[in-house]
């Protein structure tokens, strides 16, 4: 394996993060404010995605329910990708496209937030979840890339999109993870004060 190839991954990752610094800081700040307001009002955050994005949804929920970097009471978050019985029942009885939308309908309440993660912005089941969230009067925070994809057409004016300026899935996922850490840190700072 070429050391230069490995080093190029680091360079590429750093370059995308630096490019995203200016454009994504404001939507991430707005997402933090939105999520904190929902949690402060007794609402919760539902998170979904596919593949690596499903893992990111689980990571986010774990950081809120457990803790991020500081001790605090757990915060209500649910990763919709974790219950295999629910996922397989919905996929079998309805369609794979409905695996998240049906859960949003069952679990979402007005004032809750949906964290919708799709690197392409085109995941049909995530788009269906966004539409279900709107019907449940929820706000959507969408983490996307590749120009935002079809998510751009289904997001409303009150939703927040964090669209990574890259077409490479690996780079998009790396910025999504950084964004998730920013969200968790920001929520904690608002709850506990800046340290």
From TrEMBL:
Residues given in the record as substrate binding sites: 50-52, 63, 92-93, 118-120, 123, 173
Any Pfam family matching the protein: SIS_2
EC identifiers of the protein: 5.3.1.28
Major localisation: cytoplasm
Comment on bound cofactor: Binds 1 zinc ion per subunit.
Binding site for Zn(2+): 59, 63, 173, 181
Name of the molecule in the record: Phosphoheptose isomerase
Gene assigned in the entry: gmhA
């Amino acid at each position: 394996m070429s050391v230069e190839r490995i080093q190029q991954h680091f360079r590429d990752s750093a370059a995308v993060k630096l490019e995203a610094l200016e454009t994504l800081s404001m939507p991430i700040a707005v997402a933090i404010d939105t999520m904190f307001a929902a949690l402060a009002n007794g609402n919760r955050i539902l998170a979904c995605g596919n593949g690596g994005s499903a893992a990111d949804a689980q990571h986010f929920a774990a950081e809120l329910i457990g803790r991020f970097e500081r001790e605090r009471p757990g915060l209500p978050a649910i990763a919709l990708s974790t219950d295999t019985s629910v996922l397989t029942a919905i996929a079998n009885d309805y369609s794979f496209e409905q695996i998240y939308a049906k859960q949003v309908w069952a679990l979402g309440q007005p004032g809750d937030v949906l964290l919708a993660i799709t690197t392409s912005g085109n995941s049909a089941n995530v788009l269906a979840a966004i539409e279900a969230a709107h019907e449940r009067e929820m706000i959507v925070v969408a983490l996307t890339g590749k120009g935002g994809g079809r998510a751009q057409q289904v997001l409303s004016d009150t939703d927040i999109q964090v669209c990574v300026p890259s077409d490479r899935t690996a780079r998009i996922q790396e910025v999504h993870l950084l964004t998730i850490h920013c969200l968790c840190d920001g929520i904690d700072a608002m709850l506990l004060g800046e340290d």
